[in-house]
Amino acid sequence: MEIRQLRYFVAVAEIGHFGRAAESLHIVQPAVSKQIAALERELGLMLFDRSRRQIRLTADGEAFLPHARRALRGIDRAEKAAAELATGGAGILRVGSARGLGRRLEDILAVFRGTHPNVTVELTTTSSVPGKLAAVAAGDLDAAFVSVPPRTPGVAVHHLWDEPLLVTVPTRRAATAADLTTLADLPLARAPREEDPGTFDLITRACLAAGFTPRPGPTLTYAQDVLAGPVAAGDCWALLPSGALRADSAAVSFVVPTPPIHVSTALAVPHPTRRALVAGLLTAAKAASLPGGHP
Description:
Residues 1-58 form the HTH lysR-type domain. The protein is an alpha/beta fold. It has 3 domains: 3-86, Orthogonal Bundle (Arc Repressor Mutant, subunit A), CATH 1.10.10; 89-160 and 264-289, D-Maltodextrin-Binding Protein, domain 2; 163-261, D-Maltodextrin-Binding Protein, domain 2. 42% of the residues lie in helices and 21% in strands. It contains 9 helices and 11 strands. The strands form 3 sheets. Strands 3, 4, 5, 6, 9, 10 and 11 form a 7-stranded mixed β-sheet that branches. A two-stranded antiparallel ribbon has the order 1-2. Strands 7-8 form a two-stranded parallel ribbon. The longest helix has 29 residues, at 59-87. The mean pLDDT is 89.
């Protein structure tokens, strides 16, 4: 099986016509037909129904198509990696980010770009910690910033910093909010456990240690929306990282709980790490995370 055979097959499958597929590939139609016929003989499958004016995939062709696409994506990644090695550090670094990193992420990327000026960093922001870890393990992300990450096969986790969580409450309840017990009657807004199980469980433990089980409240997606809406209205409270908050509402107050609660942030990378660029990002992240490493 040859790479070009897979490329020709996918092109014809997506375009639905041998001639137009050949034009898109900048080759002649007989070459496309010949190579796909050779692929069918090697596989022992009929991939296309040629009995109609417009060709269609057979059932076997439909089943084989996602495998061909996945193989080509892997080949494309290998070619990009080889190009990076040949050019000595240029390339693309795919990084999973998260809301609320703010200035810390800016500082990390500034340090990284200072040592890797020819590298393009592609950021993908998502709140799902398990999703980012799975993407790192599968090779779809080169690294990801995650909070309180669970152990994941094929992924190494490097601790970067601990961030204090602040109790965010309606201002009228700020005077006593350091004691979480006083909030037992108020629903708690937070992200679903499947998005960030480590932080969810950390907050649950803090509430249980204060003597109560938190009442379910609104789903936390964008912190500022929840603060400006249900928290300001007095309908709920939340525990949020200090770096993700803006003190721009007289109706909401931020209080340090007693005892303090900290959430850890780490950089997840493939294990073993084979790309020098990933090691460079980790070095930059650790340097920017040191005391005094960011303004």
